[in-house]
């Protein structure tokens, strides 16, 4: 158990109207910001998707974001996923969404969703992707696979092989993004930028995995040029992978980059997924 989880009941499903309104305002502001950044960059409206980064937020807060228009969520920690998934899956199903792997995993999630559905059928639900965006230790893989659709934080071949093996055992295919440490900051996970292309090619060949793109966390500096250079390099790496013509790399299109502080820069450099927490939910009381 992570210490902060003792201080907040993350499975809580009920929040007051004021908090709901705050979150709705946050979502609308971020969606407007995405639209403006797309337009400024001369990009097609709707080419950037918003992922709500929901670490430390409870089920009620996350559902308020979904009610306001969020259509993809991301969690950092397997422990948080386990605590929130049953409530999230049930609440999503009651609104017509199939969260993550809920509908085809045959797990407690599927049972929760079925219970919430009543007379409707699973086929009527709209998929709502659920990503893991934080580091994954191999002993936690089986905790997250029943819930998430994509793991964004794959940064080495050994981890990819372990996820692949467990996915094959479960009879599922898991989406993965290769995380690249474009900033070179030691505190960050991610593979070396000059190893990314080879690693992506190897990961893409593994059964049980579907390589959907690349992910990075922007440099933690004030110099916009430095942040921009990292994002641009991730895009160039993605473009080279697509241009290689390798069949297994044909779907390696996503660029998950941009957070509250650097979203507009990331969008101008080609981001397809921005991961935003603070600008939606406010400052985090816990890490
Ligand atoms: C927390 C987190 C985000 C969102 O960060 P904000 O600054 O709150 O928008 C994005 N990506 C990852 C990997 C995170 O851990």
TrEMBL record:
UniProt-listed InterPro entries: Ala_racemase_N (IPR001608), PLP-binding_barrel (IPR029066), PyrdxlP_homeostasis (IPR011078)
Gene Ontology terms for molecular function: pyridoxal phosphate binding
Superkingdom classification of source: Bacteria
Ranges of residues in domain Alanine racemase N-terminal: 47-284
Name of the protein in question: Pyridoxal phosphate homeostasis protein
HAMAP family in the cross-refs: PLP_homeostasis
Keywords: Pyridoxal phosphate
Modified residues (N6-(pyridoxal phosphate)lysine): 55
Role, per record: Pyridoxal 5'-phosphate (PLP)-binding protein, which is involved in PLP homeostasis.
PANTHER family per UniProt: PROLINE SYNTHETASE CO-TRANSCRIBED BACTERIAL HOMOLOG PROTEIN, PYRIDOXAL PHOSPHATE HOMEOSTASIS PROTEIN
UniProt family annotation: Belongs to the pyridoxal phosphate-binding protein YggS/PROSC family.
């Amino acid at each position: 158990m992570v210490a902060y989880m003792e201080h907040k009941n993350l499975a809580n499903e009920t929040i007051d109207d004021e908090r709901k309104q705050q979150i709705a305002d946050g979502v609308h502001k971020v969606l407007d910001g995405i639209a403006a950044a797309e337009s400024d960059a001369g990009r097609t409206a709707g080419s950037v998707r918003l992922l709500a980064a929901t670490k430390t937020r409870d089920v009620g807060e996350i559902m308020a974001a979904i009610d306001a228009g969020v259509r993809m969520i991301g969690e950092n920690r397997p422990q948080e996923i386990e605590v929130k998934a049953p409530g999230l899956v049930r609440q999503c199903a009651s609104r017509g969404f199939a969260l993550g792997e809920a509908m085809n995993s045959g797990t407690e999630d599927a049972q929760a969703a079925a219970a919430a559905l009543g007379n409707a059928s699973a086929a009527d639900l709209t998929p709502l992707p659920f990503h893991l965006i934080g580091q994954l230790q191999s002993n936690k893989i089986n905790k997250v696979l029943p819930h998430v659709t994509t793991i964004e934080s794959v940064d080495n071949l050994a981890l990819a092989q372990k996820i692949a093996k467990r996915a094959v055992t479960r009879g599922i295919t898991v989406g993965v993004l290769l995380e690249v440490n474009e900033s070179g900051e030691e505190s960050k996970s991610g593979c070396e930028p000059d190893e990314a292309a080879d690693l992506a090619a190897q990961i893409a060949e593994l059964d049980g995995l579907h390589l959907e793109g690349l992910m990075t966390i922007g440099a933690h500096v004030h110099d916009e040029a430095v942040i921009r250079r990292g994002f641009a390099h991730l895009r160039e790496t993605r473009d080279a992978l697509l241009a290689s013509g390798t069949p297994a790399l044909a779907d390696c299109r996503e660029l998950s980059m941009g957070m509250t502080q650097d979203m507009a820069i990331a969008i101008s450099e080609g981001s397809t997924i921005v991961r935003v927490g603070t600008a939606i939910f406010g400052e985090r009381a816990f890490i």
